[in-house]
Amino acid sequence: MKLRALILGVCSASAFAFAAHAEAITIATVNNGDMIRMQKLADDFTKKNPDIQLNWVTLEENVLRERVTTDIATKGGQYDIVTIGNYEVPIWAKQDWLLALDKLGPDYDVDDLLPAIRGGLTVDGKLYAAPFYGESAMIMYRTDLFEKAGLKMPEKPSWDFIGDAARKITDRAAGINGICLRGKAGWGENMALLTAMDNSFGGRWFDEKWQPQFDQPEWKKTMDFYVKLMKDAGPEGASSNGFNENLTLFQQGKCGMWIDATVAASFVSDPKNSKVADKVGYAIFPDENTDNHGNWLWSWNLAIPASSQKADAAEKFIAWATSKEYTELVASKQGWAAAPPGTRTSLYKNPEYLKAAPFAEPTLAAMTAADITKPSVKPVPYTGGQFVAIPEFQGLGTTVGQLFSAALAGQSSVDDALAAAQAASVREMTRAGYIK
Amino acid sequence: MARAVSTRTKIGWTIAAWIVALLIFFPILYTIITSFKTEPEAISGFSLIPSGTLESYWEVQSRYNYFQPFMNSVIISVGSTVLALLVGIPAAWSMAFSPGRFTKDILMWMLSTKMMPAVAVLVPIYLLFRDWGLLDSRIGLTVMLMLINLPIVVWMLYTYFREIPGEILEAARMDGATLWGEIVYVLTPMAVPGIASTLLLNIILAWNESFWTIRLTTVNAAPLTAFITSFSSPQGLFWAKLSAASTLAIAPILIMGWFSQRQLVRGLTFGAVK
């Protein structure tokens, strides 16, 4: 008995001493399905790297952005790895807030990263963040409703076709809305959709001299089309609907079409949560005779803040979490359909993944079509597809989003909303020094 | 003279009070109900009858050890309240029984600090915490919440102390009581109901404080407010899990509020009815 107690004591003491020696890194992340999966599978990393201990801080997206910004700007050093979007990466890298990832290891195969995604995370030839998963936007539609209405989705649908089809499918007595689109105000909510939509209508946020373009015919056409379409074929209270609200409506069979992030495809085709899982078709983001399909491109990425004192351990973890081996680990534990999408070319060449994920090919097509260096058919002084990659966009995008959301709710006219958006943008861009 | 109130009026008021109370409580009730649903049930529309599954609670517990943020919440809220009372009781005593020329101004100034938006001082406070090594520490957060709630503590105690006749304290002094004896043996026992309601209200305020508790912590000192926010999702539906996390976070304070409602109501209505 005494011997057992002694052995137990020695074991506990050694475990304690070992834990005390392990280097602890703190990872700030968001509560997305793929991120949670990574957290659950992280044992694989700690087993391979027993000298590194992982602490997770999961925060709501906007809180995370604010917390991490405060910490990096004040050099607080609270985080060793941060989860950020491709909007922040180039801006933060230029401000020397992030460390370049140049020790990902020989097996990492950086050339396997999708070129569009890699390009958005590279500044002056250096990779400042590694993509964990990526997305573009596409049309998700109900094949049964299309068939019933005698419609066939074209290979490259135009907005005119989408408008006509949505009105034809709408059956409000049966609770079916022809189309569900984002209306909730926010730079990452309705403005993501409307910016991509305006790109596809041939518009842009700013001209080469940073003059806002809300007084131009393209924005007028975009907004008139959007507001009228949502009035005729959209759900009630659409001005409060964001990604999650539309996801619920679509999963419940209340939308004929939904144009949103490609990552939604894995949710709507999941029979556990979606009533229409076996009736979903996919098509590329519409255009308006421009061959511009919105250029929506987003990725959640792992980066190391410049204030981290444990950069080597952090980079080791990033290399593990964004590697091909990690994708295989997910597939072995939870099936290929659960593999983090939109980051590696090899995934889209994997026959097992293509078989398990019916949305794989349309996702790749959407991501390949997106070019954030040329978001509009007209010349622009900025990069970014569904956003403008300047620090002022968060605030300005949300202000404009509120004006457009009010127009959708019928609280103001499209013309008034556009005029107010133009005035607000000119004011902000002048204040920030873009307009001389 | 009290007015005679008819039985019908009484019943009417009782029903109205119940309706208002249920309306106010309904969001909390629905959160609790949703926590016992599966995710598909949670999104499938309004229903007051859950399937009774505990899977969201298991999921929440498997991702986050509830006990750690719970203990942090207890330590931070109780610690900051006790500290605030230690500072607030003597301050309120002096303001109530030996008011000076500027007492009213000081009281108003203290209250005015509550009107300032917290975000205005986020960066300076963050820098101070960084330099003093207080980021992600329970001590730092306890002191911070004490300072935030101190104006309310002083104001509440000042209001209660003003209700106590100064002659009683004078009598104690005449009998030879020292300042310490006067506060501890005469004033405090008489003000126990007021101190108790101040204590309870401040524990609730500190428990629910989310701006600083989320922004000044990461792992070690993160309380239940950080625990809840970790279940909010921008992409994907986690309503049942979020409801389970919220229920776990509010349950202790809800239970405490239930058992101490008499003191709370007394404290909040003190001086309102003469």
Report on the architecture of this protein.
The complex is a heterodimer of chains A (436) and B (274). With 436 residues, chain A is an alpha/beta fold. Helix content of chain A is 44%, strand content 14%. Chain A folds into two domains: 2-134 and 298-356, Periplasmic binding protein-like II (D-Maltodextrin-Binding Protein, domain 2, 3-Layer(aba) Sandwich); 137-296 and 372-431, Periplasmic binding protein-like II (D-Maltodextrin-Binding Protein, domain 2, 3-Layer(aba) Sandwich), CATH 3.40.190. Chain B has a domain at 67-230: MetI-like fold (Orthogonal Bundle). Chain B has 274 residues and is mainly α. Chain B starts with 6 loop residues before the first helix and ends in a 5-residue tail after the last helix. Chain B has 14 helices and no strands.
Task: Compile the SSE list and pairings.
The complex is a heterodimer of chains A (436) and B (274).
Chain A: H1 2-21, E1 23-30, H2 33-41, H3 43-48, E2 52-59, H4 61-73, E3 81-85, H5 88-94, H6 115-120, E4 122-123, E5 126-127, E6 130-135, E7 137-142, H7 143-148, H8 159-169, E8 177-180, H9 190-200, H10 217-233, H11 243-251, E9 255-261, H12 264-268, E10 280-284, E11 298-303, H13 311-321, H14 324-334, H15 351-356, H16 360-369, H17 393-408, H18 414-431
Parallel strand pairs in A: 1-2, 1-3, 8-9
Antiparallel strand pairs in A: 3-11, 4-5, 6-11, 7-9, 7-10
Helix pairs in contact in A: 8-10, 17-18
Chain B: H1 7-35, H2 39-43, H3 55-63, H4 67-97, H5 103-112, H6 122-131, H7 138-163, H8 166-174, H9 179-190, H10 192-208, H11 211-215, H12 224-229, H13 239-259, H14 261-269
